[in-house]
Each structure stands twice: as structure tokens, then as C-alpha cells.
Specification:
The chain is of the alpha/beta class. Helix content is 40%, strand content 10%. It has one domain: HUPs (Rossmann fold).
Length: 243
């Protein structure tokens, strides 16, 4: 966290997972004139590919990066328990995502509540004005903590339960991708010169994306609808595990 003290100007904390959405969100924060500190969470996920991807993206963006290790010993998700299979993408289920009835096993209980809570604590400690999160309520798997209602509720938590909030200078939670399709996110990433070749979205941690999980399916559909090739897929195919 020593790098946090070197930030100058308008500060922000960016939740960075190493995926397409969070990387684009980081570049949105930079485009809005913020000096971001990237928070990356090592929370016991099945693989470390996304953590290494996040480090590379932060370095490419010229932003300090803090990796926080937290433990969720109760698991409760196929992203935390390697004995549980990661489900393949089901376009019919994804079409119904967001209706609250079909939440996949990849849902991590309370994940964004935890991440945002750490981000608020960090933001207050370093004097940051905003937190950026890459939550998306359209092309996603149906997680309840990726919806506008959740973001609005957490803003109320900050307003009522933090020093900055009760002093009428609450840390702002910004979710610039909340109402965008994956194709729109891909186009925005291209416009902002996001290093898409460095991002990792797959739930598996193999040498190349599995191509079958929800995240791979949605990402592939986004690039196809945006009329673009996925440079990350080209990169992993070319360089394998060392890419």
C-alpha cells in the first residue's frame, strides 16, 4: 500500500480483476481525470491467471496496484471450490439473467459487498473521492450484486455509515459499464486504448480460455457483435501458458 501515498490530484480506487470489464473501467477512471489505485483481490479463486493479468494491466496503465489476500473458508461457489464443476454457458439461462431466479454456481456469496467495503476503507484512508467498479447488469450471468439496485443501495451505506458520508462528502461509487452491452464495452475499450490482449475473463486457468463458461461465451459474443477479433484469444493461442 506504500504506493498509495504517491498518488496526486483527484484520486480513485478501482476494483481490478484482470477481465475485460474491470480493465475498461480502469481506463474510464483515467479518462475522467482520476489517479487510480487498483485493488486486486486474491480471495481463493480457482486460478491466479486473473491476478497476474490485473497486475500487468495496472502496470501498463501506469497505476499503483495492491493485491489483497482474503479468505472465504466456507467457499459456497464453483469459483472457490475446485471439486465443483464450472457450468458451461447456457444462452437460454443467460437471456433470463437478472430476473433473480437462475443464479449460477459461479456466484460468490457477498463478493461485491466485500470488495466495495474494502474499497471504501481504502478510499477514506487515502483521501480518494471515488470508487470505480466494473459491474454490468446487461450481458452478465445474473449475479444480484451487479445490478443498479445494488450499487444504489451501497451508495446509501457509504452515505450513512462512513465519516466522509456523514460529513456530506461521501466517497462516490461509479459503475460506468452498468447499463452497457458487452459489444458496447468492447467498443469503448477500443476507444480508450485498453490493452485488451492482457485481459483474462475465463473462469478456468488453463493456457488458453476454455471457450465454454459464461464469461467466455459473453466475451466472445461481445467481440463478435462489435465486429472485432479478440486480441487476448489470439495472444494466448500464439504464446500458450507463457503469454
Amino acid at each position: 500500500m506504500s504506493n498509495a501515498s504517491t498518488l496526486r490530484g483527484k484520486k480513485a480506487v478501482v476494483l481490478l480483476s484482470g477481465g475485460l470489464d474491470s480493465a475498461t473501467t480502469l481506463y474510464c477512471a483515467r479518462a475522467q481525470g482520476y489517479a487510480p489505485l487498483c485493488l486486486v483481490f486474491d480471495y481463493g479463486q480457482r486460478h491466479r491467471r486473473e491476478i497476474s493479468a490485473a497486475r500487468r494491466i495496472a502496470r501498463k496503465a501506469g497505476c499503483p496496484c495492491a493485491v489483497l489476500k482474503i479468505r472465504l473458508p466456507w467457499a459456497g461457489s464453483s469459483l472457490l471450490d475446485a471439486s465443483l464443476p464450472v457450468p458451461g454457458a447456457d444462452p437460454r439461462r443467460l437471456k433470463r439473467a437478472g430476473r433473480g431466479k437462475e443464479i449460477p454456481s459461479t456466484y460468490v456469496p457477498g463478493r461485491n459487498i466485500l470488495f466495495l467495503s474494502y474499497a471504501v476503507s481504502c478510499a477514506e484512508a487515502i483521501g480518494a473521492q471515488a470508487i470505480f467498479i466494473g459491474a454490468n447488469a446487461l450481458d452478465y450471468s445474473g449475479y444480484p450484486d451487479c445490478r443498479p439496485q445494488f450499487i444504489a443501495a451501497f451508495r446509501q451505506v457509504i452515505a450513512r455509515g462512513t465519516r466522509s458520508g456523514v460529513q456530506s462528502r461521501a466517497v462516490q461509487v461509479r459503475a460506468p459499464l452498468i447499463d452497457k452491452t458487452k459489444a458496447q464495452i468492447v467498443r469503448l475499450a477500443k476507444k480508450l486504448s485498453v490493452p485488451l490482449e492482457l485481459t483474462w475473463s475465463c473462469y478456468a486457468g488453463a493456457a488458453a480460455p476454455c471457450g465454454t463458461c459464461d464469461s467466455c461465451f459473453l466475451r466472445a459474443r461481445g467481440f463478435k457483435e462489435a465486429g472485432m477479433e479478440d486480441p487476448a484469444l489470439q495472444r494466448t493461442t500464439r504464446h500458450g501458458a507463457n503469454g
